[in-house]
Amino acid sequence: MKFNDFFVGQTFKTKFLEMSKEDIMRFASEFDPQYMHLDEDKAKKGRFNGIIASGVHTLAVTFKLWIETGSYGDDVIAGTAFNNIKFIKPVYPGDILNAHVEVIEVKEKNDTGLVTVRFSTFNNNEELVFTGDLSALVQK
Predict the structure, then answer these.
(1) Cα separation of 45 and 80, whole Å?
(2) Which residue from 88, 114, 100 is spatially nearest to 12, judged by alpha carbons?
(3) Which of 41, 61, 122, 132 is the most exposed place for a label (fewest CB within 10 A)?
(4) What does the DSSP assignment read for 52-103?
(5) What confidence score (pLDDT) does residue 109 get?
(6) CA-based nearest residue to 60, from 87, 89, 21
(7) Cβ atoms 135, 84 nearer than 8 A
(8) Any idea what DSSP says for residue 27?
């Protein structure tokens, strides 16, 4: 979509993605090697009673689901900011995530435009697990 196709209040819903234990552990082993993501025995004794996904993994999955909607297509130029990131609830193996994406700001920037969207990511119990605002330059 071109910049002029976006408007404040516009909403999108993504497809669903299941978070497997193997994917959680694979991501964490490379990008967030902490016990709550990798060590099942230690994680069971911790605050979350088991392995949880890294918040960075949840953010990455949310971004992937957004991109797969095709809304930016080839008109996106580059991301410029990721703000107001909140990891609200833990994401467990077997959770199925999807995101609701709302356009919260559009600004003209010379020959391009800046589109800011708010991600709200939910698990299969319809519980909010993550929020964050992404700004990106988009072609007119």
Answers:
(1) 40
(2) 100
(3) 41
(4) ---HHHHHHHHHHHHHTTTSSGGGEEEEEEEEEEEE-S---TT-EEEEEEEE
(5) 84
(6) 87
(7) no
(8) H
Task: Give 105's strand partners.
Answer: 116
DSSP state for residue 21 in the 8-state scheme: H
Inter-helix orientation angle 21-31/55-67, to 10°: 110
* pLDDT tens-digit profile, the chain (140 residues): 999 999 999 999 999 999 999 999 999 999 999 999 999 999 999 999 999 999 999 999 999 999 999 999 999 999 999 999 999 999 999 999 999 999 999 999 888 999 999 999 999 999 999 999 999 999 99
51, 23 contact by CB (below 8 A): no
What was the pLDDT predicted at 21?
98
CA distances from 71 to 116, 119, 126, 135 (A): 13, 14, 23, 14
129 to each of 62, 65, 93, 111, 132, how far by Cα in Å?
11, 15, 14, 36, 11
Total Cβ atoms within 10 A of residue 67: 13
DSSP secondary structure letter of residue 50: S
